[in-house]
Amino acid sequence: MAILNAKYIAELEEYLKSGNLEEDFKWSVEERRGEILEFLEKLMDLGELADETATHIIFKGQLGALMGMPDEKAEPEQPSPAVEQGASMELPRRD
Prior knowledge:
- The protein is mainly alpha-helical.
- It has helices at residues 6-17, 20-27, 30-59, 62-66, 81-85.
């Protein structure tokens, strides 16, 4: 599975917007509620990381250019194991 999965993001967005996640939480046992809350916490952490990453990608080298520093021509880093393995998260299951 590719790490950039627009279909999965769209499904997750629909799951959240539809109210189904809230309904699942409402009718779940305590253990499952904890899992849902952990999932949402991880999702929020990933949102912050995505924001930081996008900012870095967009503005990489911009500050140096403004300060008159030479452009960095470093070789790209090796992909992380998660990228190589196609890491993904699963949608919470309905009980």
